[in-house]
Amino acid sequence: MNMKSIVFAAILSTAFGTAMAENVTKPTVVMTAEDGNYSAGFEATHSTGLFTDTFTFSYSGLPGDAFGFAANVKNKKSDINFTSATLNGQALDLTNFGDNSTVYIDLPVSGLLTLVISGESFGKASYAGTIDVTSAVPEPTTYGMLLGGLGVMGFLARRRKA
């Protein structure tokens, strides 16, 4: 086998190999809180090829439910198809239908959240999303109703003893 054949084989293998888009790993985002609900946004842009993106979020609330989505809408020159998505290792639902690709987030969570999204980009394409965490902390009015109910129960118990 001569050197020309080896060089030609190497050129062919790189020319027809699978294209890889750049993977995105974002630094940890501290989620902002408003009325006990924590929220953060995320986004990524890719050139043509396969990708795996990692987003990390932290919040200081109690365990709660995470919900949100990530979406891409196809345009004339680019598109993204999601192949998998996980939040803290648990698989998320996703769809690739027509011009839309969407990841749906709906899981109980606590502490640090790691969102991993994999897919394939066709042309320079972007997706964006949001993740929200709602803690199971009662509202102040709920505490007021609880205390009022306990007061009524105590009053009735005392009245029965008399």
TrEMBL record:
Keywords: Signal
Record carries keyword Signal: yes
InterPro entries: Ice-binding_C
Domain of life: Bacteria
Annotated signal sequence range: 1-21
Pfam families with a match to the protein in the record: PEP-CTERM (PF07589)
Keyword match Signal: yes
Stretches assigned to the Ice-binding protein C-terminal domain: 136-160
Protein's recorded name: Ice-binding protein C-terminal domain-containing protein
